[in-house]
Amino acid sequence: MNSLFQLIARHRVLASTIFLAIFPFIMPYEALAINILIFGLFAMGFNLLFGYMGLLSFGHAAFLGIGSYLTGIGIVHYGLPWGVAILAGVIGAAIGGLIMGFLAIRTRGIYFSMVTLALGQIVYYIFYKAESLTGGENGLRGVRVDPFNVLGVPVDFLNPMVKYYIILFFVVIAIWLISRILNSPLGAVMEAIRENEKRAAACGFDVAKTKLLVFVLSAGICGLAGSLRGLHLSIVPIDSLHYLQSGQAVMMSILGGMGTFFGPFVGAAVMLYLEDVVTTFTKHWMAVVGLVFMFFVLFFPKGIWGTILSKLQINQDSKS
Amino acid sequence: MTGLTFELLCMQLLTGIALGSIYALLALGLCLIFGMLNVVNFAHGAFFMVGAFLGVYFLGVTGNFWFSLVLTPLLTGCLGLLTERFLVRPLYGRGLDYPLLLTFGLSYVLIEVMRVTFGIEGLPSITPDGLGGSINVGIGYFPKYRLFLIGATALIILGVWFLIQKTRYGLIIKAGAADQEIVKVLGVDIAKVWLLVFGLGCAIAGLSGILASPTRSVNPEMGVPILAESFVVTVVGGMGSPVGAVVAGLLVGVVYSMTSLFFPDLAELSIFVLMAVVLLIRPQGLFGKAGAMG
User: ipTM of this predicted complex?
Assistant: First the structure.
């Protein structure tokens, strides 16, 4: 059992990929699976900053939104091919992250959360007011992906299963990238900053530069999630930019287990599945999600995945 | 820009001050709780919203604004006491993020509770009897209620200032914020002080809710944008500085109303731009101490 766990831990990208490849078959319907895939990526991108470096941003909806809108605007207004439009969304979100990060990393702790939330609202109002490009309150409609061929095989994006695997392709690339970042020296510096910022600085690491770099990477990954979401929904709702959406990333990370590789994904899956189940009984799912979240903050701060991991860890220690 | 006169400018300034008083009150409540407990109350906007709902509800039932003005902060204050005692208190010593996250979850729940109780459309806002209409302030006619709002806010702020600067309780609060260990050693039940300060902060949030209710639509989501705006005020004023909270609150209100006079489309953006500029020049805020942001 333990050796299996260690095998999974060593090949976490491969393990995640295999799990996600069979994931749509254990979900009640594909749209939910796609939603979880996208929000799982969003939460993982967010967790890079929060879980691994200890910076609690409440403005990450901005990057989800920028990714969605730039991809959508590229397709609807400029007729870009969808691959190029995704790239535009990711790069746009990363640039947004550079600007927001530059301002926000000047502050610390709780102040950082407040500043990111406020800066996220700026992005909200900019896209809200640019009605001719974004559709304002009604959102941007008509984000379509036309059927295309891969090596002569026709691919129809509207088929939910096909859509799932196309989106999975991009998600796996991002997961691989996240794993690479965490295994690199940069990943070690990130955790050093989380544990003790002053000591990390004393060890000679450029704390400000690392924070900014991780902020940009995190923003780009969340931007990719946004791009994919725009393609999935074929519209971009203005809600994408709302700070309650940023809060969702926070909740998913905590619920699954912040600072763990796969935790945010687990959190996204549990939360969206819960939302799906609860809405069949009552439209007040927010109260249920809020209560579950508070319960976890109070009693299981490590989250679902984090608690499972630490239980396994304890077993390992006692055996060795 | 036709018809721009000195009078119009003054009127807009007054409107900005009325708006700013609400911001100042909210930021003051946030600041009290943060200064003492080191907790950012993410549910502050939700307490504001609950205050507005309760205020309008009691006003509708009893027809007495003053009664409602007393009862509402008492109730939101009690809600605050319960929140501190049962939800926030277990999280002390677990880092700054956890109380913030918990109160964020609480805001979700409060929004839904109000939706269930009062419906998603919210309640029609009522201007209390005797405070409707306008009054000549020398340079033109200004809504009576907004003048009342400015006066009432000034009184509340003075009251809080008096409590902190001139009473024994204030002394304990200040001492507790500076060094809780010493205060504990001196035999003060610090847990009780924290409880009361949290309750007071929430009572002020509820009070600003009922005071603001005649000037805006009362719906379950009304606390959401105002939380972001109160954060802007807190960041501009400097975290943990009550003077900063009040000054920045008024400043943000005036900046908003002036921008909406000249560039209506940019009004919402203007206060965030103000924040960005302040951050670039003084990351600790106008009245914040350097290094007091950890």
Answer: 0.89
